[in-house]
Amino acid sequence: MNHLVNHIAEGLKSIDSSGIPFRNYQPGVGPYGEPQVLRKIVDYLLQTYPSLYDGTKTKRMPDVLIPNKWALEFKIVRPYGDNGKEAEHWSQNLTHPYEGNVSSIGDAIKLHKSDLKERKGIIVISYEHNPPKIKVEVLVECFEYIARNIVDIPLGERYISQIKNLIHPIHQQCTVYGWEII
After folding, report:
1. Considering Cα of 25, then 27, then 28, then 29, what sign does the dihedral take?
2. In sequence order, what are the residues at sequence separation of 6 or more whose Cβ sits closer than 8 angstroms to the Cβ of residue 44?
3. Is the pTM of this model over 0.90?
4. Tally of CA atoms within 13 A in the half-sphere of 142 that contains its CB
């Protein structure tokens, strides 16, 4: 999981360094939507580490499948939008604790109950100011608490990779968090 989190962070840095904006947003990786950034991350992994990620693809469930290795669900967390204003309901992407919803908790429940043969993991990509105006770390700790103690998801150790100096004026740094569901 540690290598995977680091490789995803490298991919995000590569996307950011390209300077290609997503739609009409400011340049940088921060504004990309989940499906678009996942496609670009998978492309990066396939080009940079072809032997490690051969056959990797984006799917509906799981979000990313690395055949015979990992079934991964991703979530993006952005406390602030491209316009610099605090985003409404941004924290529920991680902590809404009900089966069947699209939060990371819902994704963890779905993965845990699935019969996928691959190892299962949750990846969270967060964007913040540098220094953070709102510390996403607090939300990450809430996610872990809810997953482990409320809905009984056996999360493994938290792995982190951080990227600073992103080109977007609001999404200035990115942290990639990853957990294996044991």
Report:
1. positive
2. 10, 11, 14, 15
3. yes
4. 14
- Residue 62 one-letter amino acid: P
- The identity of residue 36, as a single letter, is Q
d(CA 181, CA 7) in angstroms, rounded, equals 19
CA 14-180-101 angle, 5° bins: 85
Distances from the Cα of 40 to the Cα of 2, 74, 172, angstroms: 20, 13, 19
Containing 3, the helix (H) or strand (E) segment is helix 2-18
Portion of the chain with pLDDT greater than 90, in percent: 93
Give 66's strand partners. Answer: 70
- 81 φ, ψ (degrees, to nearest 5): -85, 175
Using one digit for the tens of pLDDT, what is the confidence trace for 17-34?
999 999 999 999 999 999
